[in-house]
Design a protein that fits this description.
The protein has a 7-stranded mixed sheet with strand order 17-16-15-18-19-21-20, sandwiched between helices. Strands 1-2-3-5-4 form a 5-stranded mixed beta barrel. The chain folds into 3 domains: 2-84, OB fold (Dihydrolipoamide Acetyltransferase, E2P); 106-137 and 244-410, Vaccinia Virus protein VP39 (Rossmann fold), CATH 3.40.50.150; 147-209, no CATH class. The termini are far apart. The protein contains 8 helices and 21 strands. It has 418 residues and is α+β, with helices and mostly antiparallel strands.
Length: 418
């Protein structure tokens, strides 16, 4: 065992620190070599999950790397951070769904701001990062969860819940999730009973079942049509389809995106990952025309129905091949703003090339993965775009995830870099 002084949190929410002077001075530790052998150099940094900055902890190193880094398991908190709180879930530290329940919410927001700022620093954009916007709810905010179940073993109950910490193929049993809405938790017992009854017939590890709450109610049928309200909009879509899972912060996120897109007076808004039409329809009153572009014909159909449902007549939705996203628009984007909200992997090179060729005056890039977002921003910055703002939103309290909105404008006088 060693004592470690924690100095920071990494991007995954793990404590990172150095061996305390007491450990370096000697004494029995799990890094000590057998008698008669040469001691390996002490690691320069040690990663300790569930430890917080400012704490001294006792830990057991289980992996040392040749580059001076090591990983350890937390055994005891010797000196406690004032920001350490009691985790609201008894399974915290075992269930892999949350990483920072032990950190006071103000500390979570400051850390997520720092994560985005750290990613933005190599691009020279640290000063463009605003403070992370807080979620109105820190618990009972998730409107969709997908419980998994383990492969059944004869005579043993089936674990139904989420992956264990540090495991890729083992599920921990979760009877109630404090991040899920109360309505979802009220439905969990019947869902768990159904999974348990059907699990022996299943042989694939990690099979999952969906449960979603929307304005129209709770469903466990992924093909069911659900209705969600965001501000004055009413949107209908299939329960299995992507939709932001924190409805309590979503109106603020949407408002920020639309305000940023409309700021320079563009007459056309293009929603390049339109889905069921959220951003396009929310923006309709601020633009002369809005166009939603989607590669999924089914999503395009739903978006058109949502436009009619909300009596919006200046919005159209087109199904476009991934290689010809902007062909339906014609001309240049000199008087257009484009909103993009890609999956976690970010934008492909082909899409970015098309976006640059369209040359919109404003780009608003919404991302649930600031790491890939920063990669894509480099491409846009090399093509005459300037990043004006980076605004994080805490759509996922208690977890390591953070949503980030980047606002970019094009300088028509600037020459793209080769």
């Amino acid at each position: 065992m060693v004592e470690i002084d924690i100095g920071a949190l990494d991007h995954d929410g793990n404590g990172v620190g150095t061996l305390a002077a007491r450990s370096l001075a000697g004494g029995k530790g799990d890094h000590d070599p057998p008698p008669g052998t040469v001691a390996p150099p002490a690691p320069a940094t040690v990663t300790v999950p569930f430890a917080l900055p400012g704490e001294r902890v006792r830990a057991r190193i289980w992996r040392s790397q040749g580059d001076g880094r090591a990983a350890a398991d937390l055994l005891e908190v010797i000196l406690r951070s004032p920001e350490r709180v009691e985790a609201p879930c008894s399974l915290f530290g075992q269930c892999g769904g949350c990483q920072v329940q032990h950190l006071a919410y103000g500390g979570q927001l400051a850390w997520k701001t720092a994560v985005v700022r750290d990613l933005a620093t190599p691009l020279g954009l640290a000063d463009r990062v605003a403070d992370c916007a807080a979620s109105p709810r820190q618990l009972a905010y998730r409107s969709k969860i997908t419980p998994h179940h383990d492969r059944p073993h004869a005579g043993q109950p089936v674990a139904i819940g989420f992956l264990k910490v540090g495991r890729r193929h083992e599920v921990i049993d979760v009877e109630r999730c404090p991040l899920a809405t109360e309505a979802i938790n009220a439905h969990l017992p019947s869902l768990r009973a159904r999974i348990a009854a059907s699990a022996p017939e299943r042989r694939r590890l990690g099979a999952s079942f969906l449960i979603r709450e929307a304005s129209s109610g709770v469903t466990t049928d992924p093909d069911a049509r659900v209705t969600e309200r965001v501000g004055g909009l009413e949107l209908e879509f299939h329960a299995r389809e992507f939709f932001q899972n924190n409805p309590f912060l979503l109106p603020q996120l949407v408002g920020f995106v639309i305000d940023a897109a409309a700021r320079r007076g563009a007459s056309l808004l293009v929603d390049a990952y339109a889905g069921s039409g959220l951003f396009a329809l929310a923006a309709a009153s601020r633009f002369a025309e809005v166009v939603g572009v989607e590669v999924s014909p089914g999503a395009v159909g739903a978006a058109r129905e949502n436009a009619a449902r909300n009596h919006i007549t200046n919005a159209r939705f087109v199904a476009a091949d991934a290689s010809r996203i902007f062909d339906e628009l014609g001309g240049s984007g000199s008087n257009a703003a484009v909103v993009i909200d890609p999956p976690r992997k970010g934008c492909g090179e082909q899409f970015l090339a098309q976006l640059v060729a369209f040359a919109p005056a404003t780009v608003v890039y919404v991302s649930c993965n600031p790491d890939t977002q920063m990669r894509d921003l480099v491409t846009l910055m090399n093509q005459a775009y300037e990043v004006r703002e980076l605004q994080p939103f805490d759509m996922f309290p208690q977890t390591r995830h953070v949503e980030c909105v980047a606002v970019l404008t094009r300088d028509a006088r600037a020459r793209p870099r080769p």
